[in-house]
Amino acid sequence: MVKNLRDRNLRPEATISCVWAVSTIYHDIMCITSKAIKGLAVTECLMFHIQNYYKHELTLKSYRKISAKMGDSKTLKPGTIVGFCNPLLDMMVVGDQNLLKKYDLLSNNAILADNKHMPLYEELMNNSKVEYTAGGSAQNSLRVVQWILKKPNVSVFFGAVGKDKFSEILKVKANEDGLDTKYQYSTEKPTGTCAVVVTNNGKDRSLCANLSAAKTFTEDHLEVPENKSIIENASFYLVTGFFLQVNPKAVQILVKIAFERKCTFLFNMSASFVFKFCMDSVKSIFPFVNIIVGNDEEAKAFSDGYEWNLDSVEKIACKMSTFDVENIGNRLVVITQGENPVIVTQNGVVTKYSVNKIPADKIIDSNGAGDAFIGGFISKYILGCPIEECVSCGIDAGSYIIQQPGITKDDSFNL
């Protein structure tokens, strides 16, 4: 029974809840396994076996605490979630294929800027229609988490910025959304920027990031006493592929902390280029990644990095969920596919979730929809909700953001 529930992609906490309900009905079931504990009631025996099955140090007392917390953000402590990525100031403009071609950009893609892209930022600054918004993948995801949970400082974001007016704007915007920030400040580099060229009536976006100060993040920042305390007391860790490229050593430290503390580590694949240039770093952390999220193109790039030669996203997702899981027991894989269903796999079992159909005339900007999806997903996952509810919230968050200019919200936001 427990395995069947687990194969349906239920969270350990949700599975425990289901088993608990069954056990109260079938109170006279005997514990028949070789590890049954003499003298314990069936519910205690079930909890004992679930504990071993999931490798969770779970007791009846801790179960009751978990059950009480499900769906209640008020019980979450400050710093429950920590995120690491490259904080950027987004410079968004509606463009066309000519602009993309001019700077050798692809629609619906993300790259790091090199010398040939530097004139793009000046061109956007001189564009009267450019919009500035707080950006950076994980920072955006955690802003969405805060919108949904409606409790300040549940999430804390780490990243490097310049000591300038742009970082002041970023901090103010993040704090306004209830997100705590622990920036590492560079006196030599300015705050990073990201050119966002929106095309195809808002359906596609091309991101060209000039990381600048974001590239200066050092693992020393993790050892600052206040930061170290936050990191070592968090329950959930969000790290992006973008950040992995900047400081793989810091990510290795973080994934080790999460693993040793038996906490959840979510890796956002971020972009296809991560698996072209950083595959060794990916391989070093993947055995300890509990949840991996990305889109179909990123999943294909991940597969190519491992040379799996698989011909479908479903097969790739299945392989990702069962590959190199000896340390963690199981892995949850979530792959978005634009207008097509979200693919979720665990233990090689596939579940698909239909997405909301957004009329073309309602789509304003697809930039940030993926980050919003992750934010929606995390906001329910951290409360112990079933996976289907986590995915549903992610879909709703992404659907909302795709109808907004950037990661912004108005009074209609209610998830």
From TrEMBL:
The active site is at D371 (proton acceptor). This is adenosine kinase. Keywords: ATP-binding, Kinase, Nucleotide-binding, Purine salvage, Transferase. GO terms for cellular component: cytosol; nucleus. InterPro entries: Adenokinase, Carboh/pur_kinase_PfkB_CS, PfkB_dom, Ribokinase-like. The lineage of its organism: Eukaryota, Metazoa, Ecdysozoa, Arthropoda, Hexapoda. Residues 100-408 form the Carbohydrate kinase PfkB domain. It holds the Pfam family PfkB. GO terms for molecular function: adenosine kinase activity; ATP binding. Its EC number is 2.7.1.20. Pathway: Purine metabolism; AMP biosynthesis via salvage pathway; AMP from adenosine: step 1/1. The keyword Transferase applies. The gene is LOC112687504. Belongs to the carbohydrate kinase PfkB family. Its cofactor is Mg(2+). PROSITE patterns: PFKB_KINASES_2.
